[in-house]
């Protein structure tokens, strides 16, 4: 029996900044339909790893495959076209445009027409419908004609996810999507993440163990730029070495909460 080809397969990724070895031989495999949480202390190299996966940074060593295809040297835009899409920790929206316009631009870009909107006139109907469907999925229709700068921060994050989905991801990377969202708005984010298309492989960097517990089918723990452990959430979180990493920090309490698996 041959194993299914991984959606994303990183092998031995290394990255150094000057004297600082930030990524030290990371192996990571994401399969279609899995929900992987990448956890680890601040400075562990989580964002650097996402930058290596997306092509923002070049690794010093190691390789990356997308659906079996070698993309280690491929530019970021090529990886995006092959289905590797990220959302950003820092808001990357057009604040003065409406929610609808922001998502429509992404839909038009994904359709290969970029900003030359005059060229898509004939296909505008499809693009409008696809934009509406994404807004519906993210429960953003009530806000669609408001400027992004005027809607709540938690809802701005939903626009970012809608834009990522517009690019038709097969592997989606979410770098701390809950960062900065007030707790009163977190349910919206949970709901949006729950409705991501099931066949996508999703990797989420997240500190909040309650969110990890809800989300993850797999957990990978990054410490000092290397994967300390990966596997099923219950096993990974119960492991003494993983607990030790979080001992004596605020994270410990969240961790213990997360250990209360049924
Ligand atoms: N462009 C860079 N130049 C130099 N050092 C960097 C750069 N990016 C990140 N680092 C360092 O790499 C380490 C890991 O950072 P990062 O990947 O942001 O960690 P995390 O996302 O896990 O908090 C940190 O010590 C950070 O200061
Ligand atoms: Mg980070």
Any overview of this molecule?
The chain has 262 residues and is α/β, with parallel strands linked by helices. The protein has a domain of 177 residues: P-loop containing nucleotide triphosphate hydrolases (Rossmann fold). The protein is 36% helix and 23% strand. The protein has ten helices and ten strands. Strands 6-7-8-3-9-10 form a six-stranded mixed β-sheet, sandwiched between helices. Strands 2-1-4-5 form a four-stranded antiparallel β-sheet, covered by helices on one side. Helix 3 packs across helix 4, helix 3 packs parallel to helix 5 and helix 7 packs parallel to helix 10. The chain is globular, with a radius of gyration of 19 Å. The chain starts with 7 loop residues before the first strand and ends with a helix. The C terminus is likely disordered. Magnesium ion binds next to helix 1.
